[in-house]
Amino acid sequence: MVGLEEVSFQIIAAVGTARSMYINAIQAAKAGKFDEAKQMMKEAEECFITGHKAHMEVLTMQANGEVMPFDLLLVHAEDQMMSAETLKIMADEMIQLYQNLADSKL
């Protein structure tokens, strides 16, 4: 099993990519590129899942009895993960909103 610092960086990298892709998906939907937005959301979800799996490694370590000292980097990684999850929910809603607006103009 890898170290806590490495897992933290894996989480930060993966969910950071997901966050960026969620933002790009919103921008694509705003421009009326709904297929592109949906594809970005799928790719972002894959990145988010990668980060979530890395986070599960930490939880597994703790469940196996490993004592984890307070680690600010892990706290940051978990914060980034929650931020990405919130942005995902908002992106889903905004893409649907832009789709509804586009459909109502037809």
TrEMBL record:
This is PTS lactose/cellobiose transporter subunit IIA. Pfam families: PTS_IIA (PF02255). Keywords: Magnesium, Metal-binding, Phosphotransferase system, Sugar transport, Transferase, Transport. It comes from Dielma fastidiosa. It comes from the Bacteria. One of its GO terms (molecular function) is transferase activity. PANTHER family: PTS SYSTEM N,N'-DIACETYLCHITOBIOSE-SPECIFIC EIIA COMPONENT, PTS SYSTEM OLIGO-BETA-MANNOSIDE-SPECIFIC EIIA COMPONENT. SUPFAM superfamilies: Enzyme IIa from lactose specific PTS, IIa-lac. Binds 1 Mg(2+) ion per trimer. InterPro entries: PTS_IIA_lac/cel, PTS_IIA_lac/cel_sf.
